[in-house]
Each structure stands twice: as structure tokens, then as C-alpha cells.
Amino acid sequence: MTARPHDALFKSAFEAPADAAALLRELLPAVFRELIAWDTLHGEPGSFVDPVLTDQHSDLLFSARLRTDAAEFIHVLLEHQSTADPAMPLRTLSYSTRVWNRYRKECPDAWLPPILAVLVSHVPGGWTSARTLDDMFDPSVQAIPGLSASIPRSSLIIDDLAHLSNDDLQARPLGAFQKLALWLLRDARAPRRLLDNFDTWIGTFAEAERAPAGTDATTTLLTYMFRVIDPVHHDELRAKIHQLGPHAEETAMTIAEQWHEEGRIAALRSLLISRFGSQALDAKYEAHLKAATPPVVDHYLQRVLVADSLAAVFDDCPPPGGRPVPD
Q1: Is 258 helix (H, G, I), strand (E, B) or coil?
Q2: Element (DSSP H or E) covering residue 206
Q3: What is the reported pLDDT for 146?
């Protein structure tokens, strides 16, 4: 499972241009909604490398033509944030400059395209950080006559999920999977709220499962819930999922088993590192862990208690995935 479940769910829900367009038409001011030729919206590479070779990634980047005589392009950065970032306007400006630099290399004689920065926030309590770049400057400095004109505004269009009700999300002209993704992003870090709201979304789950990619969508949503909700709530979550029908319940059981096994392997890895004084396992032993079946994990756990070295835990065990050797 991914180490960044919020990112994975958001991208899964909105990386397709049609799904992104449905969300953006809901969030952008009317002037932009009418200006953009939505049928031309398509995804652009959103990865950049800064001068010290550190990878940086915008969440999603799209471009589209404008409904103008010149049919110029516009770009849209579609970001999401699960935690507050006071420097978010500066960060999106950094992404924008990378887009423009790349565009200049590809089209050196063309005008630079405008870039809209749209932020979907599921920060607990709502977005209270800076919304424009000039929010990050001292107001007394900005008050100096003529100086404010030299400060780029770089404003964010913010969709603050924390302040949206179930009815607000249900009313959006989005697909069922996309509505459920926004609900889960809003509630998943408050398990009590998610469980209390679950019944409201049962019909939407059924709609998502009937869609062409419904099985994959349901698996993605259930995986996300088990990934981000504290295991202390998993029994109650499984009881809620039971209401979605046998397929969802079977999927949830498989995910829960996988999650439990991942937890056992993580605990075994920590125990091995602690017992034998390593900073990390080498590639050979890591491969054994990742490929081990549950019986083999049991065997490793028994051995780590009495072994005097990593080799004694692993070396005379069967190939990864095989049956454990009896003691």
C-alpha cells in the first residue's frame, strides 16, 4: 500500500481530464468556466527537478484552450493539502515558474500561458493559512507607496472541504466515486465523524459500484479507509461495510487481512533491526520479508527470538513464498 494514501486517492479520483473538468467547473469563478474550452482539457507532466536535483511534484497539471479568437492555452494546477502549509502560495508559484520555463524551452517564441492554482483542502478545521503570495509579506512594507506593485499576487482558488456538508458534496455534478473520494478526504482523519456519516453515503457507494470501473473504485475507497483509519475502529468500519453488500464485504476482508499481514511484517522488520543493531536490512533479507507467506513470517518470528544473527534467521529457510522448514 502507498505511503501517501491521501495523494493516491485524490489522483485516482481526479487525474482523468473529464473528472477534473467536472470539479474545476464547480470551483472556478464564472468568468473562467465560460472562457475555458473544457473538451480540450488534457493532462500535462507535473514533475519537475529543481536546481539541486530534488524532485518536486505538483499533484495534477492540466492545460486547455481558451474560447478566444487566438485560441491560446491556459494551465490549471490542481493541488490538494491534508495539512496546513503557510507557504502554499509560494509553492504553487514555484510550480508555475517550472511550467513556464519548460514551456519556454518547448515554444520559445510563444506567449506564456496563464496558470490557475486550485487547492482542494481537507485540513482539519479548515484552511487558515495564506491564500495569496502578498499575504506572506509584511503589511507595513506593502503599504509603502508603489512597492506593492512589485509583489506578485499568485492567488489560490481554495475548495475548503472542512466547511462543506454531506448535502454540499452530494449536490456537486461529479461522479459517485469522485463524491465519495471528497467525503473520505474530509472525514477519514475523524473516524467518529466518518462512521456517523457512513449511512448517508450507502446509495452513492452502490452507484459507484455500478459504474464501468466500479470494482476498482470500490477497492480504492475501501483500501483508503483501512489505510488511514486507526485499527481500533476497524471492527465498527467492517460492520458499516457489511451494509454495502457481499462484494464490498469480501473486498474489505481481503484488505484487512493484507493490512494485518503488512503490520506483522513491519513489526518483524523493526524487531530484526533492533535485535541485530542494523540501520536497515540488506536487499537480500528485505526480499525474503516482502515475499514471505504468512507461515514463513510465523517461522521468522519464532527464529528471531533465539537466533544469534540475521543469517541464522533467514539463511536455511526455504525460498521466499515456500513452506517453512520444520525445526
Answers
A1: helix
A2: helix 202-210
A3: 85
Summarised one tens digit per residue, pLDDT across range 21-49 is 999 999 999 999 999 999 999 999 876 54
Contact 19, 178 (CB under 8 A): yes
Using an 8 Å Cβ cutoff, are 28 and 116 in contact?
A: yes
**Structure-block grid coordinates of residue 118:** 486550485
Beta bridge partners of 76: 62, 116
Task: Say if residue 53's pLDDT is above 50.
Answer: no
CA 225 from chain centre, in angstroms, equals: 13
**Integer CA distances (angstroms), 176 to 139, 187, 210, 219, 221, in order:** 44, 17, 10, 14, 11
Q: Which pTM value belongs to this model?
A: 0.80
Sheet containing 156-160, strands listed edge to edge, beginning at the edge strand earlier in sequence? 42-44, 60-65, 73-81, 115-121, 156-160
CA distance 295 to 275: 22
**Whole-angstrom distance, CA of residue 198 vs CA of residue 221:** 13
Give the Å distances, CA to CA, from 6 to 26, 82, 117, 187, 296. Answer: 21, 7, 19, 12, 32
pLDDT confidence band for 322 (50 / 70 / 90): very low
Instruction: Spell out the long-range contacts of 236-241 with Cβ–Cβ below 8 A and sequence spacing 24 or more.
Output: 236/195, 237/191, 237/195, 240/195, 240/198, 240/199
Mean pLDDT of 307-313: 84
Cα distances (angstroms) measured from residue 178 to each of 141, 221, 247: 43, 10, 20
254-287 residues labelled b (16+ CB within 10 A) or e (exposed): ebbeeeeeeeebeebbeebeeebeeeebeeebee
